[in-house]
Design brief:
By secondary structure, the protein is of the alpha+beta class. The protein is built from 5 helices and 10 strands. The strands form 2 sheets. Strands 3-1-2-4-5 form a 5-stranded antiparallel sheet. Strands 8-6-7-9-10 form a 5-stranded antiparallel sheet.
Length: 175
């Protein structure tokens, strides 16, 4: 069965969060969010669900068909260098990685695992900076000061995945 892509708005008190979910229908989106919220004891006051896979412009469809043909129900993100990918299935949160190359250039990446973080890094380097250098990947949260954590927990709940930068006014943003 071919899945569909939904943009989901989740209201938690005065805070609103957005995410994308792959599911066969809106009812299953609601069930998935309920399962996720119950597992992590999140409270929710409202949920909006809009199908978007048929509305996306052509330049935002990379990886979409393969994902909708093969993916289970779960969270998904669009990352400009690698396209659409599943990033959270069932009850797993995203992770925050630090990648440091041999020239001491540091990039922060939000991804479900190290393999996808490396893919995002490699695609970004090839498109923007040239050859891929040797690098090390580590848990990025451990390198942050307390005041830099700010909105990171919210990004790690639903995504999106991608390269993250710290903005002193907004906190962590995906670029």
């Amino acid at each position: 069965m071919r899945m569909k892509l939904y943009e989901v708005g989740i209201q938690r008190g005065s805070r609103s969060e957005q995410c994308h979910i792959v599911a066969p229908d809106p009812m299953r989106v609601g069930e998935f969010v309920n399962e996720y919220d119950d597992a992590f004891e999140y409270d929710r006051t409202n949920l909006t669900v809009n199908r978007i896979d048929q509305l996306l412009p052509e330049d935002r469809k990379t990886g979409l068909d393969a994902m909708l043909e093969n993916a289970p129900v779960g969270f998904a993100s669009y990352e400009r260098h690698i396209g659409w990918t599943m990033h959270v299935k069932a009850l797993f949160k995203l992770r925050f990685f630090t990648i440091k190359d041999i020239q001491n250039k540091v990039i922060f990446i939000i991804a479900p695992d190290a393999d996808i973080a490396k893919s995002i890094y490699a695609a970004n380097v090839r498109l923007n900076r040239g050859p891929i250098l040797m690098f090390e990947i580590s848990d990025g949260v451990r390198t942050l000061r307390k005041d830099e954590v700010c909105n990171l927990p919210n990004l790690l709940k639903y995504g999106p995945i991608g390269i993250a930068e710290y903005d002193h006014d907004q906190g962590w943003v995906i670029v």
